[in-house]
Structure formats: C-alpha cells, structure tokens
Amino acid sequence: MTKRLPLFGGLTVLALTIALTGCDPSKDNASNGTPPSSGSPTPTSGASTAGTAATANSAEAFNKPHKATGAVLIKVITNGSDPFWDSMGIGLQDGLKAIGADQVSGNWLPPQGTDNNSQKTVFEQQLAANADGIAVSPIQADAFSPVIDAAIDKNIPVITFDSDAPKSKRLAYIGTNNYEAGKVAGEEVVKLFPNGGNFVAFVGNMSADNAKQRYNGFVDATKDHKIVMLQDPFEDDKDQVGRAHRNVADAITKYGDKINGFLGLYAYNGPAIVDEVQKAGIRAKVKIVCFDGVQRTLDNLSKGLVDIAVVQKPYEFGRVSAMLLYGINRSGFDAAMKELQPKLEGEGMKVDMDKHIIDTGVTVVTPKNAVEFIKALHAKGLKST
Amino acid sequence: MPKVSNPPDSIPATGGAGPRKSFAAQLLASRETSVLAVLLLLILGMAFTSVSSKFFSSANLQQMAFQVALLSIFAIGETIVIISGGIDLSLGSLIAFSGMLLAFLVNQLDTRMYTGMAVVLAIAMTFLASWLIGAAHTVLIQRVKLPAFVVTLTSLLVLRSQSLVMAHHQQIPVSQEKFPLFNLLTNGKLFANAAYAIPIPVIIMILIAVAAHLVLSKTRMGRYLYSVGSNEQATMLSGVNVFKVKLFAYGISALLGGIAGLLYMGYGGQGDPSAGAGYELDAVAAAVVGGASLTGGQGTVMGTVLGACLLNAILSVILLTLDQPDIWRGTIVGGVLLAAVLATAFQQRKH
C-alpha cells in the first residue's frame, strides 16, 4: 500500500461534496406552493373527477341491502400495527356493541409486512372468510385500488379509512382531512405569532400523502401571515428514535436562534422535538406545535412542554366504519349515508354526500385543556389517540 | 478468555495488524490512516466554507461525537463478527428488543423492590438475554451448520416482531424522574459546563473500543478471530476451538447490541419497538469503510470507529450545505461506501 489510497479516497469524497454543494437543489416550490383542490383530503393529480365518477357508479349497485338478515361480519384492515390503531380498535368494538352482538361482529387486523402485497394478502383472506364488509387503510392507494375494485365487483362493500384510495371504487372514505388538520395547526400558529416567525418542520416522509397534506394545509394557513418555513421539512424515513431526534438537533445547529417554532408532522416527531429542545435549553425561546395524541405528547402537554397538539380521532374511524358497513348491509349505501349524516354532523363531523367522504375532524389540545382531554381518553380505556 | 488446549501460536494472521511489519510502515499502509486522512481533509475543507462556525460549534461537535458513539458501540460488535468471517444482521432489531425488554423489566421490577436494585437487575437481565441471543446464533451457525446470514436474518425478523408483541405494539415509557440513570447514561455529559463537554456515550464507546482493540491485537482470542475469519478449516485443524471463538464474536456483538439498546431507550425516553430499524446495515457500512472485509479475516476497531466518524461527518456536512439533505443522504453515503470498497479492491489487486 502506498499513499495513493488516502489521496484517492480523499479526492472522491471532496469531489462528491463539491459537486453536491455546487448543484444546490433549490427549494422545490411546486411541492408546497400548489394549493390542493378545496376541501378534498387527497390533492393527488386527476383523482377527483375519475374517482368521484367511479365511486358514484359503484355506490349505486349497493343501494339495495347487502345482507338484510342474519349476523353481519365486519373486518377492518390497518396499514400496520401502530398504537394509533388501538383507539380505532376500541372505537370499532364500541360501534359494534352499540349495534348489538347478535346483529354484527368484527375485528381489526394489521398486514404482516409494510408493503402493498402483504396488505393484499390479508385483505383477500378476509374476502375468503366471507366478510360482509371491509374497511381498509391502504398502504399504497393506487396499487391497492384494483384489489378494492375486485371486491366491489364481487358485491362486497368496501370503504377506506385514514388513508383514501380515490381512484378505486371504494364506497366511502372515513378519516381526518389532513389538509384541514394542517390548516387548523397553521391557524393556531398565526394566533401564537401575530407578528410572524420562523419555523422548521419534521416528518417521516414527505412523499406520503398525509404528510404533504398536513404540510400544505399548514403553509397555506400561515404563508400570508409572515410565518416562514426555513427549509423543506427534515425527513427521518420513520426512524423514530435515532434520526427523528438527530434531525431536531441538526436543525438547531443549522439555524440556531433563527428558529421561533418547531412543527412535528408525524406523531413521534413531537416527543423528539421536545427532547432535543429541552437538551438545548431553548424551550423558553420557542413554541412547539405537533400532530397526534401519542402518550408522550399527552404527557408533554400536561407538563406544558408542547404548546399545541392537533389530535385526530382514530376512535371515530373504527366506530363510524362499524356503523356505515352495518348500515350498507341492512339498508343499502344511500340510505345508510342519509341516516348517518345528521347523526355524525351533530357530533361535529363533516359528511360530504357527493364525494362520500366523512371527515371525523380534529381536536386542538393545549396545556390548558390537556388534563381534561386525557381524563376523557382514560374514560374510554385509552392511553393515547 | 477461553482456555484452548495445545495453543497454536504460529497461526498466520493474514489481515489486520501483521506483527512483522514495522510500526511506521503499518501506520502508513493501514486503512485507518486513509480514512483518517479523508476525514481530516473533509474537516479542513469545512473550515473554508461559510458554515464553518456552525460545523465547528460545540453543539454540533458534541452531537457528532454522540452519534458516532451510539453507532460505534454496536458497529464494533459487528466488526468482530465480520473479522471472524460471519455477519450479524440482528443488531437493529436487537436494539429495539433489548430496549423494550429493559423498559419492561425496570417498570415491573420497580413494583417489587428498591428502585436502585430494580435498575441494576433489569440491566443485568437485559444484557444476559442479549448475550444468550448471540449464543443461540453461535449454536445454530456452528453446531447446526446454518449460514450466519440466514440465522441472524431470522433474528432480525423475530426480535422485531417480539418487540412489538411485548407491549402489544405500544412503546413502554420509562420515567426520567424515577429512573434518572438511563437519561444520564444517554444524555449526560462529562464536564457538562465546559465548552467541550463530552457526552457520556462517547466515554462508554471509548472504553468499549479500547477493550475490543486490546482483545483483537494483544490476546490469543484476537489472533484466533482473524485466523478463523481467514481460513476456518485450517484454524480448526490446528486445534483451535472454533465454536468458542465464534461464541465470543456473536456473544460480544449481541451484548454490545444490548448496550446500544439501553442507550437508545434512554435517548427516546421509552422502549420503542420501532427503534434501530436498518441500523445493522449502518454498522456494516462503518466496518467496511473502516477496512473490514465481508469475506472475513480483516478489520480493526480503530478502522470502524473512524468509519463511523467519517460517515457522521459527511452527514453533518450535507446537512449544513444542502437544502434537502435527507434526499441526498443515501446517494452520498452509498458513494462513500463504494469508494471504500473500490479502495479495498485496488489494494488487494496490488498484492
């Protein structure tokens, strides 16, 4: 070995660094500048027209009762086994219980893996087990659409929840309108910073629809109010401990005193922000805004370490799925939607009768109402939501 | 140190530190020197950029040292396994599993005994469980003759799944007020008020690295590890108990995985079943950049720690210089890895 190796390696790394620093990919304005079609939770291209048409047509075939008598079997398929689904599961069981054990039964299942195929497998197993209705939260909306369509063609009612498949023939979608949730967070931030401020955001993957919608909603609500995003969100590829924390520490290194507020887009980003802000000792100078009610975020709220948490209602995903799938079986899709609409809207949800979308809404939790909120959760047997 | 009957002291050590070369010649030729040179060039280069004050800020240096320490602790274990001619793919899942087990045990035991005792017992049980997983790997690989890749891949899957099973896919919070030790071990600092405070994990890492370096370079077990990795058959025929050597390698790897699990648990403030996903590959990357060869018989502790330093310094550089560091991360780390493997290939062709 001679001295060539260090030179060789050094040149490679330097060349790489210089090349990449030089090309400096300028901020992708297209990703946060495009306003999504108003009110639609899925601003994916071309989805709205084609999707609505397919939904309307397929829904008509379900206007007759699917199973007017006998016990109805309902299956709910999640996109994984996150604690988030526990609330959904309790909501599902509460929904089923409210209808009556002799009328309806069901349970929820996660796929074995995290990919489209493993979800397809569990979905098809439920079809084979004679499910009378399936609610699914597709991992990859477009890739999963043919699977949903095949079930619809076999006359099995399928709805989506939490994450929609707008191009499929799914009958309805139940979930949080993430764009609206982002807007709610943005509006709260505008109240906190009447004179504007600089934010950094943290997320698992910006390629995911829910991340884009939350972020776009936040940006749309804040951009005219001098709230500046210092850069595109830091992504951690769902490495919930290591990179989620590291990104926050890195942001503090990179921007220091410039940062006025932190935005955690995924559930685990909130606790990671709190940890690193505490470590850096800058809590008094910054505000922390995050999404979802995981246990540590709830704890942090009650300790005053988080300023705003925008919390979804996964409990309602399960409960409304049970009610809707049961209703479709007993009285047909249209009748079931008409019956549910006033009831759900009375509870503060938004029901879009054209697009067949039920937005279960969000709750804004602050240190002021945290204790009350947590008490109400415990009453349902939940530690998080 | 396992005693071996009829010790063959004349086993040729093909890789790593060849005992016959002069110290200066070794230093010049070694992979560590090249990695260190690249690292220094990179750091020197940063001094002339507009972000140098941020790069060299004490917060960033501490953060980099902290990240290097967390990665190095289990990458050293991975290196020992790679030197012995094996691979351990279970480390990322083991980090989650041991963190969950520790969080579970400490909360359970605390209701039954003094808190201090519960902490010590929980840590001991977690480390023992981790070591036993390494021992199970060794039995399956050496006695049942299964490929190490598949055995540890199985663990990657099973341990991840068991981490999810343990609390019904929930995290297990560990109260910082009640158990301050974990927070101290991860987030604590030596000379906390000085500008260049040293994160405690860095000290833990240095202790582990020095011990591992001494074992590899000064003991009979170290020589056997290189020898088994270079030519297992010949080593066995010369009377070395290969099972014991492999047990040492996989046992240490799993034990260090358990220690990393403890630190990551302290980092997140909870046992987290999603922790450490894919970290086994970061460990392999650090080892390979540091000169370890996946065919066995080559690699050093120093090389791996320097590899971890280089990878982390590069991450910090791209963070500070690029607008979208996250999407470039894979390309740059992959590029460095390729450069390292190319360097090794050229080096071997010259011989």
Structure description:
The complex is a heterodimer of chains A (385) and B (351). Chain A has helices at 4-23, 29-33, 47-60, 84-99, 116-128, 141-153, 178-192, 209-222, 242-255, 269-280, 295-302, 314-331, 333-346, 370-379, and strands at residues 72-77, 104-109, 133-136, 158-161, 173-175, 197-203, 227-229, 234-235, 261-264, 287-291, 308-311, 350-352, 357-359, 363-365. Chain A is an alpha/beta fold and 385 residues long. In chain A, the strands form two sheets. A seven-stranded mixed β-sheet of chain A has the order 2-1-3-4-5-13-12, with helices on both faces. The longest helix of chain A is centred in the first third of the chain and has 20 residues, at 4-23. Chain B has a single domain (68-345), classed as ABC transporter involved in vitamin B12 uptake, BtuC, CATH 1.10.3470. Helix content of chain B is 72%, strand content 2%. Chain B has 15 helices and four strands. Chain B has helices spanning 23-29, 31-47, 52-55, 58-83, 91-110, 115-143, 148-166, 180-187, 200-218, 220-230, 232-237, 242-268, 279-289, 301-321, 325-350, and strands at residues 172-173, 189-190, 198-199, 270-271. Chain B has a two-stranded antiparallel sheet. In chain B, strands 2-3 form a two-stranded antiparallel sheet. In chain B, a hairpin with a 7-residue loop joins strand 2 and strand 3. Chain B is globular and about 65 Å long. The chains are: A alpha/beta (385), B mainly alpha (351). At the A-B interface, helix 1, strand 8, helix 9, helix 10 and helix 11 of A face helix 2, helix 4, helix 12, helix 14 and helix 15 of B.
